[in-house]
Structures are given as C-alpha cells and as structure tokens.
Specification:
The protein has one helix at residues 9-16, and strands at residues 2-3, 37-42, 54-57, 61-65, 68-74, 79-82, 93-101, 107-115, 127-135, 138-147, 150-155, 161-162, 167-173, 177-182, 185-191, 200-204, 215-224. By secondary structure, the protein is mostly beta strands. The chain starts with a strand and ends in a 12-residue tail after the last strand.
C-alpha cells in the first residue's frame, strides 16, 4: 500500500511501469491538500499481488501486453483471491482497472471487493463489483456497490465497446454522486447514500463465490480514497 496523491498525465507512464510489488509512491504532492490514500495492484505475477497474500485457482497465465505483463483468465475456472479490501474505510473513492475483455459468457463478474462480517455474524453483503455483459463481439460495463442503506448498479447497455481491446474502467464516489467511466468517458451517474465498507478480501476473474468467470486479461488496478476526475485516472 502507498499513500500518494492523484496522478497527473505526466505520472501515468510511471504508473504503468510499476515494478514487482505493484505499488506506487508519487514524488509530487498536491499543494495545500493531504495526499489521498492509494493502493496499486499490478497483475504481473501469480503470487503476492500488491504484497498481499494471494491464492490462485485454475490456471491463469502471464502474457505480454502493451503495458507490461498482464494476467490472462480463461473464462472457465481461473481466479485470484487476495486477502485485502483496498477501499475499506474510504468515505469517497475511485476504483480503476486496466483490462481486456475477450468475449465469452454474457455475464462476467470479474473484480469483487467484499467486506468480511465479524466472527459469529451472518455473511456480509457489502461489496463493490466490476462486471461486464458481452453481446457478440462487444461488451458494456456494469459497476455496482452495495452496503447498509445503499444498493446501486450503473449499467448502460447502449454503450458498447469492442472485445479484444484494452480499456480503462473506473467507478467513483465524491460524497454525493456515484459515477462509472470507460476510457475516461462518463457512462452515467446517480446519487448514493454511501457509507464506508469494512475490511475484507478481493477476487479477480470471478465473483467471490466462484461464479461468472471472466475471459480476458487484467493488467492493473488502482484504489484511491478520494474521488478522482477523468484527468487524474490511470489512462493508457
């Protein structure tokens, strides 16, 4: 984990080249503002993603991408489970990922951050999800979050993107509005009565309960305890 301010466009090339630990410390501070807590995971290894305990299931493979090595998932049983919820405690947030959908099943729940209930309590339903829906050789984004007093999906079937190409996706909350983006373009927004989520874990390549597997590749994810604008995203 690193505590770093939002990136400028000049910083992005540095981020895409982040090394083995998948962590970033920006050299520049935002004048007059405290640095936002930030975590970067780079999927260029099969263990210790972001320095966290990582469990691998199936046979995800490392491949070359235009941005460095990435992890390829087969859409059948490949998955990672990581013992951390990087947005736990965030009052505002930005959840970003650089990925390549390669077609496959209609519903793919490919990045799941889940709160873990205290011992002796029923399983928590509090979570974030990145999902896609595949229609032929195209896809559209489904961004979702749920917690006490809120449950909202941002999904826009008319906004289709080609499979087989790298894309950046983001979901943000600025204290009032929940927003979803593809390649820096706003897909839609809605008011949200968000409250911070608790500690937990993450799954990549499927939903936490091992359904709706992802076919494609994931290069990187970034989690910021602040709402970034598209100009501050980790773009290509």
């Amino acid at each position: 984990m690193s505590d770093a301010p939002p990136l400028t466009r000049l910083d992005r090339r540095t981020l895409l080249g982040v090394g083995a630990a998948g962590l970033l410390v920006s050299a520049c501070a935002t004048v007059g503002r405290p640095a936002a807590r930030q975590t970067v995971w780079t999927f260029d290894r099969l263990s210790d993603i972001g320095g966290e305990r990582t469990m691998v299931e199936g046979g995800p493979a490392l491949i070359d991408s235009p941005y460095g090595q990435a992890m390829l998932f087969d859409g059948v049983d490949d998955a990672l489970f990581i013992d951390r919820h990087p947005l736990a405690g965030a009052q505002t947030f930005t959840f970003e990922a650089l990925f390549r959908p390669d077609g496959g099943a209609f519903e793919q729940r490919w990045f799941h951050l889940a709160e873990k209930a205290p011992a002796g309590q029923p399983p928590s339903q509090t979570r974030f999800l990145f999902e896609i829906r595949v229609v032929g050789d195209r896809w559209y984004l489904d961004a979702f979050t749920r917690g006490p007093g809120y449950n909202h999906t941002l999904i826009f079937p008319e906004r289709l993107y080609p499979c087989g190409q790298w894309s950046h996706v983001a979901q943000t909350f600025d204290g009032a509005a929940y927003r979803a983006y593809v390649d820096g373009v706003l897909q839609g927004q809605a008011p949200l009565a968000f409250t911070p989520q608790g500690p937990g874990r993450a799954s990549v390549g499927c939903r936490m309960n091992r359904v709706n597997f992802f076919k494609g590749a994931v290069r990187q994810a970034r989690f910021t305890h602040a709402a970034l604008t598209p100009e501050q995203f980790t773009m290509r």
